[in-house]
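Help! Submission page says 'invalid entity' but I think these are all valid:
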Amino acid sequence: MEVPLHDVDVLVPKDVTEVLRLLSSRRGFKLLAGGTDLLVQLRSGAVPKSDLIDISGLRELRYVKRSNGHIAIGALTTFSEIAESEIVKRYAPILAEAAETIGSVQIMNKGTIGGNIINASPAADSLPPLYVLDAELKLISLNGTRIMGISDFYKGYKMLEIRPGELLAEVKLRAMGAGEVGHFFKHGLRQGDAISVVNGAVILDLDGDKVRNAAIALGAVAPTVVRAPEAEKVLKGKKLREDVMWEASRAVLKSISPIDDVRGSAAYRREMSVNYLYMTLWRLAKEVGAV
Amino acid sequence: MSSMASYVGAPVVRRDAFEKATGTANYASDLFPDGFLWVSVLRSRYPHALIKGIDARRARSHPGVVAVLTHEDVPVNRFGVFAKDRPVLCDDKVRYIGDPVALVAAETREAALEAVKLIDVDYEPLPAVTDPIAALRADSPRVHESGNICRQTSLRFGDVEEAFARADIVVEGTYTTGTQIHAFLETEAGISYLDEKGRIVVVAGGQSPHRDRAEIAHALNVPAEQVRVITPYVGGAFGGKDDVTVQIHLALVTAKTGRPARLVLSREESMISGTKRHPAIIKMRTAASRDGRLLANEVEIIYDTGAYAALGPAVLDVAIENCNGPYRVSSARIDAYLVYTNNMVASAFRGFGAPQVMFAMERQVDRIARRIGIDPIELRMINAIRKGDIYVFGNKMEGSVGIYECLKVAMDHPIWRDRRKDGTLEYPWLRRGVGVAAGMKGYTIGALPDRGSVSVELKRDGSVVVGGSFTEIGQGVVESVAQLAAELLKVPVERVQVLFADTERSPDTSVTSASRQLFLAGNALRKAVVALTERVKDLVELETGGRPTSVTFTEKGVLVNSNEVMPLNELAERLELRGFGRMVIGTYEVPKVEPIAGTLEIPHLFFMFGVTMAEVIVNVLTGTVTVPRVVAVIDAGRVINPINFTGQIEGAVVQGLGYALIEEAKIVGGYLQTKDLSTYLIPSSKDAPTIEVIPVETFEEEGPFGAKGIGEVGILSVAPAIVNAVAEACGVEPTSIPLTPEKLYWLLKEGGLVDRLRGNEGRIG
């Protein structure tokens, strides 16, 4: 049954300083960025009704910048902007791929990377790329700034390491190196505009067809997005051969703990994790001429 | 005077295109009458429960609430077209989670939404009946007092035993098809108010204003003349608005409060409470000879109609009538059951019972072709019925029968000819296949009484107004009727105004369903033009003393006795002057034969046919099927408007693709799990294939200018064509739709296809 939202107060601060002041002085507010998840959740009652601080108009948190081998993305940057950013496409193409498939054009135009991180869906498409690009989150408050690695930020299903009064202001990623190739992958139940049943990101640091290093992350198969260290280990130092790729793909099972839900069974998610990792490795191998 | 049609067959851009594209067209959900009350519906908490009591006191005293209505406020609390088994507001029990228990009418939307939660209903939950097979057992809890069998039909034709005894090939299968949700763009919506005479006016999305009016009047226990129903543009219906949706609730609120009211269902409410396509379990045993002749079909059909009959009895008939496909099957044994459960209510949905059996039969035919080792199209051509044939039920196929011609076109099409040519696929885990399936379904309502009237008014400026109660549900009937009128009266189509779907102003053209409306309205229009011709003769006779021998409509006006041309404005003036009136009504009654014993509407006299070919790419490692290309070959009779025709078929193909692969309503214990469009997925533009629509223009003698129904034919064979393509691509035999990635993946894994890929270890590329 629909929850009426007519009595929700919406505060519209004019800059980040005012946001931080509001966050420190008042409790029980939620931050409204793109609203593509929050408004649906409020209306359905999945998230308890609360007043809102609308930060969607804060242009100072909307940017993509490059500095010292890193990419800095303002928390309110939309997925359309990320997908079209020349910097992202060049230095973090796997994030551009994820942004491109996150949803319909309308969702891409409204949804923000900060919102995707804070909403903390295990199926969030932007997260696996952030995990393999060693993203750091910048949390600011009137008391100062904290920098935190993305994997430390999630303590469990929708449990965030964020303190009252803090605002996620920026995401910082490392740029992919010259020898690095990678892909984002996503399994949805139709060709466009679908929530992921399994998603993930793979980066390989290659020396010819030999893997110097691998970074693999998967989503929608555990309470949080997970890295797959066992699979990474299998690949490290090996050539991209069929048997190696399958062995690495099977090793991903050690890192995941999927559940049954309306979009798919746990058993199917396990199969998809293995197969998608294989298909992604194969595509990368093909692109570098290893298969 | 050319006998060639100039408007029939012309790609006239429909008159509502611009206003719809620019957003100025008014749908029921766009209407906000002055001083209206917001209506909210309390729906059942349980799939099956007794109602011990309803306490609405808290809701009634909630600020802003004007009325809370329960079953006590409903004069006649049962409605339904075939069985009056459905409560307007539940009294003794609830039978599914969408069942309405109470209505709140309030000054604000928020008050209506909040007050609904304040109604205390004392339920005694009962075990939910959710499996139609279990529902058939004697010890099953009963959804209705009368038991769980809503309808059962058993038919025997020919000597089935003998046919099986001499068959070379017998193929057997159990097929299941899913619950499909209409997912129209505009949910069920309407407004109501009292007019200056105190009559109740309901403006709502629907498919049958006169029948909706009868349902409202029956429930309110008032004469039909006290109710007026107007159906404005409807944002999609596909059968989901064939039954009453919001109309009685709106009328009830206005009758009780005297106030205008507005009720627009939310998407979730629409998904839960609206009717669905019947999920089906179909067992088939089909006998064939070595040379490819289909000999006999043994069929068991179980359709889950959910909590109420709705249009289910007729849907079951259509399933029975079409379960042997468009083939000369010489004998058949059919046992069909329509079963009550506590699932969502099933009723009309484009194809009306045919797509389910078509999936089963066309899978069977494909498997037989594989067993014999014959081209699947050739097998279908060997068995295709022809005009004049006696069909398996003993009925003569009197209308146009174009299935053989469709199959011939399909056979020669490059998608089929080149189907096994090596194409390079991007990845080793992809497989490609092309599948085919045929489809048939009767249009009009068969052996049931079926008639419709249309009015033609000549305006004094020489323009024309055509009136009929057909509804514009997106299909384009308004433009097509205007084209027919322009053709018959030889006036520019812009000079034809169409007044549709208003019980007060347009004659009863009956339901807009069963692909019947162009056929009905077109034929009634022909009759009206005949009536107008007679009136012209009366006029001339009165004026001159001699009755003209011939009256023809020409571009310059009406031609009398091949010498006098009277422009239409002059004719209108003279009709007015002489007191004849400028309006005529034509009524067309669809020819029919007696129904075969035990059925309502079998047989039809008029059938649509089509063939679908689909190319699929299967990802063996995920179970995902993509459909790059579909070719639809349709026996369309004469095409009146090629734009509308193509649009109808393309839409049906995409809807059929959703039915085949994507659309999965998950119902657990009577509760719908997929209540929104994020979990109940319909095809997106990226899922839509390149669609080629090829009309095979047979001529339907009985149809207006040779036209026949086309609204449903496009969907009939889409699912089996796609699944047959998957079978061709992978060598597995799926029996269940929707063939979701997960469902297909397990089948592929079971078939060893996944392990074969995984076994590629050691191969260095």
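Support: the input was valid. A stray whitespace character was the problem, and the output above is from the cleaned input. The CA atoms of residues 447 and 641 of chain B lie 28 Å apart.
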